[in-house]
Amino acid sequence: MGFVSLIGAGPGDPGLVTVRALEKLRTCEAVVHDRLIPYQLLDEVPAGAERIDVGKHPGKAKVPQEKIQEILIAKAREGKRVVRLKGGDPGIFGRVGEEIEALQDAGIPFEVVPGVTAGIAAAAAAGIPLTHRDIASSVTFVTGHEDPEREDSHLDWGEMARAGTLVFYMIGKHLPDIGERLIESGRPEATPALIVREEIYPLPPLAVPTL
User: Of 24, 34, 75, 89, which is the active-site residue?
Assistant: First the structure.
């Protein structure tokens, strides 16, 4: 029986990947990777290792999540050391929960190797702390794109309007709606906001707008 390492590749800069992740990449026999990873990390993979791209590419049919899980299980049953490489941190909107459940159900041993998530990296690159002794005592990570098949939203806008720092992911075209809903729910219009479309590390000096 093989082994699966569910690894976070970090926010885009290969210099921010963890030592543990590099160790696993350098000794793996198969890597199943997403599109939004630092592709330089694939240079760390042994030449003879199998490389399987399951990322979502524009204009191409995406690989269903169920198929990705089947690949992980199949490669582990071949006795291989498998790396599942995801952008950011696998536990922050990375669907790692579904992969963990599938591996557990199949009896496949695994580990989760955390990565630096984009929200934390972007704030750090901009020199903005997500918590501050005098201003914010909590951080909430929020998806800007809930599962379209879900009938009811899991988001409580009233609660978020009263929360500390909010970090939204995958907002896309929903950006204006998010600002409006927060204001309607009681968030002050003067709340500072940082928008990062494509992360560059370190970020250039920024003019921080408000809601």
Answer: 34
Q: Are 176 and 161 in contact (CB under 8 A)?
A: no
Q: Which two tokens stand for residue 51?
A: 């490389």
Classify domain 118-184 by CATH architecture.
2-Layer Sandwich (3.30)
The domain made up of 3-113 is a member of CATH 3.40.50.150: no
204 touches 127 (CB < 8 A): no
Residues facing 139 on adjacent strands: 165
The Cα-based distances of 54 to 61, 70, 112, 209 in angstroms read 10, 12, 19, 36
What is the mean pLDDT for each group of 10 consecutive residues in the chain (211 residues)?
97 94 98 95 97 84 92 98 98 96 98 96 90 94 80 86 93 87 93 77 56 68
Catalytic residue check, 1: no
Question: Would you kindly state where each structural domain of the chain is located, as residue ranges?
Answer: 3-113, 118-184
For 64-88, b where at least 16 C-beta lie within 10 A, e where not — what string?
Answer: eeeebbebbbebbeeebbbbbbbbb
The kind and range of the H/E element at 105 are: helix 96-106
Catalytically annotated residue among 60, 105, 156, 170: 170
Catalytic residue among 56, 60, 62, 67: 56
